[in-house]
Write a structure and sequence with these properties.
Helix content is about 25%, strand content about 35%. It has about 80 residues and is α+β, with helices and mostly antiparallel strands. Strands 3-2-1-4 form a four-stranded mixed sheet, with no helix packed on it.
Length: about 80
């Protein structure tokens, strides 16, 4: 089972692939502002590395404000 994680920062996008809690791939794309370009290129990049199917995909979201710890995104968090 492979899991893809994506972490969008202000100037980079970090992508990791895990299998059984072992990190198989870690890559950081440096960007100034066009995260959309990286999203468009990501499937090809992963396929070239042999990663095409994932059991799960996780994305880190930094919200701030009243939320100060990890949360499951549910209706309370959305509101």
């Amino acid at each position: 089972m492979q899991i893809l994680t994506i972490n969008f920062g202000s100037s980079s996008v970090k992508v990791s692939v895990f299998s059984d809690l072992e990190e198989l791939l870690s890559h950081t794309f440096v960007t100034t502002s066009d995260h959309h370009q990286i999203v468009r290129e990501l499937p090809k990049f992963l396929a070239e590395k042999g990663y095409t199917k994932f059991k799960a995909i996780g994305h880190r979201i930094a919200h701030g404000g009243k939320l100060d710890s990890p949360k499951t995104i549910d209706e309370d968090v959305k509101n």
